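Form 7-S
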Amino acid sequence: MNIAFLTPGAFGLKNGNGGIGLYNRDIVDGLVEALPDAEVTLLQRLLDPAPHNLPPRTRVVASAAGGKARFALAIVREMLVSRYDIVICAHINFLSFARLLARRNNCPLVLIVYGIDVWDPLPGHIPNLKTCDAIWSISQITTDRMNAWAGLPGSAYVQLPNAIRLERYAMGPKPADLVEKWGLTGKRVIMTLARLPGRDRHKGVDEMLEILPGLLAKHPDLHYVVAGDGPDRARLEAKARELGVEDNSTFMGFVPEDRKADIFRLGDVFALPGRGEGFGFVFLEAAACGIPCVGSKVDGSREALRDGMLGDLIDPDHLDEIADAVSRALAKPKEIPEGLDYFSWPHFVARLKAAVEAAMARPR
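Output:
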């Protein structure tokens, strides 16, 4: 089976392209594991110089990277020289290109959707959406928010939540080098790990900073750590100074993938009281390290935390509710919650295989 995979970025990116990049890498890894005869061709808009550390039976079309014109030209070349059995489009903005490639090969077309990429109405995409054989959605909230404007049959959607590779995480002591580096000796740590974009400020870091003075009055040994970077970091650091919690908060910046589990293990509570998570993979990572979690009930975090099975859910508009949940979480023991294996890698691969088979079975 030959698979074309169109994506903004997955492999060959120095900084990984965030949670969406990770999800796309998992899709490709899952395809080659679930389908022993599958060969995947990656057409990416973003691509750093080689090496790209691709999984087996995967190739990357390097000429597709570098801009819209190069991407379009690469699609045209693929239409002329390659044959595909299924086209998977990993961003709605690429759907016109993907539709052409699928039509040329008379093969199924699948779109992957994540969160805020499709939450707001995009009526210009509806004609292309109607040609999709399936839409793989990372969460039910994304499906519901998208279909409020897309108006597609419910049968068009397949729920395909994130996977957690549990063997990459585990409970463990706080890493001594990081405790020393960031001055956390004797501190209980509230952790947030997130990108800090200059717009779409929906991660809940503002709210955490605003409740921090009250939390410190009750728990003087607390320290708030924000791991992750982005254009909004300077504003948030300034807000910490204005609130008088500069000495009780740390902005770590970019987190290398090979230290991510150690960063989570620094935490005594993981809190991300946001409004715009399509899913919230970081909750799975924190839970896999045994860290009690506090998340939002108004976005995809609810699904990542399995409606409260894996952590406490709050309304991010109510600061007192967030503060109370954090205090409760501080009193909980560190443990890997029962039910986390619902998102395990084998279950993800099985769901992915079933989704491919269903798309292939649709009448052409």
